Amino acid sequence: MPMRNGTSDSRRLAGRRWLFLGIGVAMVAAMFALPRIPQDPGYHNFADTRPWLGIPNFLDVASNLPFLVVGLLGLRFMARERTAGGSGAFLTPGERQPYWVLFFGVALTGIGSVYYHWSPDNATLFWDRLPMTIAFMALLSGIIAERVNLALGRYLLGPLVILGVLSTLYWHFGEQRGVGDLRPYALVQFGSLVAIPLMALLFPPRYSGTADLFVAIGWYALAKVFEHFDHEIFAVVGISGHTLKHLASGAGAWWILRMLERRRPLP
């Protein structure tokens, strides 16, 4: 009887892996079935352009500080966790690698986004988006390692990060030639937001803290709402939606760190 149950579980897991792969292929196909998506020239027209202390667009610039803080705190946690010989956040050393890259990307996002919001245009926007793709792809790799297959997640870390970087380069150089296309970048960003919760639903966890993962994703979803209603929120509360977007995204990154600090291996 135990052998039969084990075989049944293996088949279900294999079926879920094929389902996940099929959904991923469908997402890629659907994205590239769409027409080219150029950068909206009005994207840089943010609601709050008030300067302060000689800093242009002060609140949109200053609200990036949480990214840098969370990124540095995350790197410190990773260093302490490794030095202490493990706190329960990782069962194997290989699982740490994506989170090193993740927090490095989060810290760089704080720097890149400050650079962009100091003088918003397509050229500076590239440096805002580049580190974000690194963070997204690193987190995706980490969840694959923890949920789907450890070796696969470790193997995909480098290729996924490279794909993320290439998606921004493709858009950036395309814009310079007048044929910019955001489809690969959108796939990296929104594809990750679909793939990560899908893995959490389809595959068994190795650690506690699944709810924290969904909370982090919820913070980022809220950030996209704030971004969309940038001008409307500014007109009502005097703080722009884009400023709140940065704070909500920073909260999402912090929640990932919180998840790692609190989680423990499951039986």
Helix and strand layout, with pairings?
Layout: H1 2-33, H2 58-62, H3 65-83, H4 97-118, H5 122-147, H6 150-176, H7 183-202, H8 210-228, H9 230-237, H10 241-262
Helix pairs in contact: 1-7, 3-4, 3-10, 4-5, 5-6, 5-7, 6-7, 8-10
Keywords:
267 residues; mainly alpha; 10 helices; 75% helix; 0% strand; globular
Question: Mind explaining what this structure looks like?
Answer:
This protein is mainly α and 267 residues long. The chain contains ten helices and no strands. Helix 3 packs parallel to helix 10, helix 4 runs antiparallel to helix 5 and helix 8 packs antiparallel against helix 10. The longest helix is centred in the N-terminal third of the chain and has 32 residues. It is globular. The chain starts with a helix and ends in a 5-residue tail after the last helix.
